Amino acid sequence: MEPGHKPLVDDDGIGAGYSYPRTPSMNVLLVLLGVIEALGVAAIAMVCYWTAHYRGGFAWDGTGQEFNWHPVFMVVGMVFLYGNGIIIYRFLPRLAKKKLKLAHAIIHKAAFVFSVLGLVAVFAFHNATGLPNVYSLHSWLGIGTVVLFNAQWVLGMSTYLLPFASRWIRTLFMPYHRFFGLVIFAMSIATCLMGLTEKLLFTINDTYSSFAPEGILVNCLGLTLVLFGGFVGYIATREDWKRQPLPEEQPINMSIE
Amino acid sequence: MEPGHKPLVDDDGIGAGYSYPRTPSMNVLLVLLGVIEALGVAAIAMVCYWTAHYRGGFAWDGTGQEFNWHPVFMVVGMVFLYGNGIIIYRFLPRLAKKKLKLAHAIIHKAAFVFSVLGLVAVFAFHNATGLPNVYSLHSWLGIGTVVLFNAQWVLGMSTYLLPFASRWIRTLFMPYHRFFGLVIFAMSIATCLMGLTEKLLFTINDTYSSFAPEGILVNCLGLTLVLFGGFVGYIATREDWKRQPLPEEQPINMSIE
């Protein structure tokens, strides 16, 4: 094999066979990254405005004001941070792989912390007000999503961040890591949509059907979450936008030619 | 180029570069196809049992019995048929490409017919009983999903079934066709989950939180839809399960070597 044709495979077995693209499509990527951040910030602004303006604001006292942290933390953690953690490799392709992997893990750990705080908020509210826990489809899918998300994090860290897994294992596991990362992300957004639906029917059932502004706001929040998720999924799966290994990350070719 | 090394690319530019796998992973594929059909049939059985046993059965008279067709038609069309249409290429890899494409289009057209009937059922029910239309996040996302699904169908048929598009166009468009097919499928399932949540809160809000059997049944239906969608997504995206062109589907190599 000629040295010039050695495959561009790094330690995790990804980024094989492509030279780093310098095409107009990279401009599209940059625009889409901007669109994603705008959508994410808009979603956080909407969920904060909704809970602060229409639902009575925030507290940590077992009332509905404590519940209000639940949608805010879930949108921040399980949508905004989760999505950004997925595409961090597209934002900073020139950063060293090890730093990117660490950032990927830290952002997702932060997302997990938000999700746990979000669960604490809703359980505390239910327990303080005598409401039952974990009976709805929203809660079943939501808890399943958080559990799977954490399992994915632990498996990912064990495989790619700690030094124990062989390159063979890393390469073998990567398609599953990618696939489940996106599926759990989709589950997370679907759970949010169910949660928004639930909360609207619990609170403004009488006026929702006459297009109350609160209902329209939350509907728009839901569509924004879907758009955010769709763009993250597109950027994460488009082959020619995959991060390419830096020159110093190429495995050394030890074969005698 | 030696004839033995010509790339395996068919007219639509897919299935490039792989020899048809004869590995244990093909047995995994067959098992998963069986699991998918079992999940799909279970979902249809659950939605039928729910609406027939708990919600009063079926009619076409503007009452809640007409509404009951809505969840049944949507699960049959926008989940079961939609999912099976996506993976038809994995079921029958030895069938001629043209027949598979026709089957893919026909199954998805049938899914669209079911979705329209499902929309007719809910609009007729709302109009007959004086309920407003199209105010909920479920309805917004649902109608958006059906519109996008139909647009995807028309674009797919124009590009791949009619003889006008060049091979260059077909190859260029294929990643988008795949990506949007799966995203709209995920939107469809998320819309179903919101619809189940809505209907439970409209009908059994008092007993849902005390784990009424109807609520547990519908929760299980929701999880079954998620599992069905997850398996379809996995099968559709796994690279080594992609259908390979049959020998007679190879483009003829006209180059002089």
Automatic annotation (TrEMBL), chains A, B:
TM regions (residue ranges): 28-52, 72-92, 104-125, 137-155, 176-196, 216-236
Encoding gene (name): LOC118423970
Protein name: Cytochrome b561-like isoform X2
Span of domain Cytochrome b561: 35-237
Cofactor field: heme b
SMART domains membership: B561
Membrane topology: Multi-pass membrane protein
Entry GO CC: membrane
Gene3D superfamilies named in the record: 1.20.120.1770
InterPro entries: CYB561/CYBRD1-like, Cyt_b561/ferric_Rdtase_TM
GO molecular function: metal ion binding; oxidoreductase activity
Keywords annotated in UniProt: Electron transport, Heme, Iron, Membrane, Metal-binding, Transmembrane, Transmembrane helix, Transport
Location in or out of the cell: Membrane
